[in-house]
Amino acid sequence: MGSGHEGGAGAPGGGEFYSPLYNPDTGAYRFLIDGEWRDSASGQLVHNANPSKGNERCFGFQACTRDEVDAAYAGAKAAQRQWGRIPLNKRASMLKAAAELMRQHHAPIADALIREIAKPKKDATTEAKRSADLIEYAAEEGCRSLAKGDMITSDSFPGAERDKLCMAHKVPLGVVLCIPPFNYPVNLAVSKIAPALIAGNACVVKPPTQGCVSALMMAQCFKKVPGIPAGLVQVVTGRGADIGDYMVEHPGANCISFTGGDTGLAVSRKARMVPVQMELGGKDACIVFPDADLDLAATAIVKGGFSYSGQRCTAVKIVVAFEEIADALVAKVEEKTRKLTVGQPEDDAQITAVVSAASADFIQGLVEDAVAKGATMRTEWRRDANLIWPCLVDDVTAEMRLCWEEPFGPVVPVVRVGTEEEALRYVNESKYGLQGCVFTRDIDRAIGIADRMETGTVQINGPPARGPDHFPFQGVKDSGIGSQGIVNSIEMMTKVKTTVINLAKPSYATA
Question: Catalytic site residues?
């Protein structure tokens, strides 16, 4: 598609549609303020790396200043006041237009995802197209849910007369700060932006370093829609260490939606008294009972554990297998794991490089600790820079770090248990509680253990998954605050406003 890079940096493909994002003089991407693609007054750039190419320099983008953050919030506030007065049906039409632009211009977004985060080509294309679907659904769901309100009469309360009518309806919060993660920088940005916009809010977006350019391209799809106010979607780039806290603590933020890891714990502590939506890490357990369909379970474990090299909050991160079937299950998982292809994302390999050398080092440390304490490697340990071959680790015990810590890589540990109570330990004693899954043919047993699992979601006879995007999605403990999914996000990004009509006192009222 002609990305035309030099020294690792690259201008976007896609012709005129994406050309304003890139400054050929600096070889870097601009940020978006008040409908204009700008270079930062700082004169400084941030560069990300290509995980699949030895961490060579990939893209450069602007290191924004605090003054530019201030301008982003001020412009978003002004745009929101205009946007909030646009009829709901027209807002929905403009969001659908943005979705259509994303479909038409998805290829450069997918190319950026391949280069920035080593996402396999097929998955990168799916992320761009799925994000367009999410925008459309949010537009339609907003028309359904936001049109509803309540009419409350006063005489339902003891001692009150029928002399007041209360009209209650949902109104926008104002400006939503959206912070997506590196692993789904487009889809998880859109999952925040689309509900916020249909509800009448404006957005300030802080993309991740890895995934920044694909997020900027996503923003162009909103900017190019006729009728959308300049400044409705602002995108501020730079290192989180430099401007992240300032953006979170900024008085211009009326709501914060964050997806990521343990950084979210600090974000929640620093946020002012505004609604906070957090989706953080997970240690999603897969419990396999003796009566389970082992072929189904093994397929789900491999898919759930190794998709996008395990870099998903909903990846299977620990398998809890009952002793009676553990040997058979592990053999099936091992056989399927060995068939996974390993290589470059542009070749659509199933296992690609993890996002950074630091991440690869952390993953290796977890595996080495487990082996040193007696775990059994069912596949050979192999690593080439950021590329780690899929790793199945058996006989993991509670003394090993791999049992409790989140590898966020292509590693699936297996623990063996004898009782349901023992199985529950590996779910409920974890500091995380995002999702879990249960494999059994006994629906009563499945529902019973699901009720006892301290997680936001339990999948029965299927791997953990975030979607479909309109399903509620939430965690407990250190896995998050609040519930996501299109419907729940619209609800969280609005507040109730009431208008009370005082009527003449009824003739039958007593003095």
Answer: 279
The SS3 of residue 387 is: strand
Q: Please write the tens of the pLDDT for every residue from 290-348.
A: 999 999 999 999 999 999 999 999 999 999 999 999 999 999 999 999 999 999 999 99
- State how far the Cα of 195 lies from the Cα of 138, in Å rounded to an integer: 6
CA 197 vs CA 56, 138, 189, 380: distances in Å: 37, 9, 12, 48
- Alpha-carbon distance 144 to 484, whole Å? 18
Say how far apart CA 3 and CA 112 lie, in whole Å.
Answer: 9
CB 102 within 8 A of CB 218: yes
Residue 76 main-chain phi, psi, to 5 deg: -65, -40
For residue 77, count CB atoms less than 10 angstroms from its CB and return exposed for 0-12, middle for 13-18, buried for 19 or more. middle
Contact status, residue 306 vs residue 340, Cβ threshold 8 Å? yes
What pLDDT is recorded for position 297?
98
Q: What are the start-end ranges of the H helices in 307-405?
A: 323-338, 357-372
pTM: 0.95
Q: Which domains does the chain have, with CATH numbers?
A: 5-280+484-492 (3.40.605.10), 285-460 (3.40.309.10)
Residue 301 contacts residue 412 (beta carbons within 8 Å): yes
Beta bridge partners of 433: 476
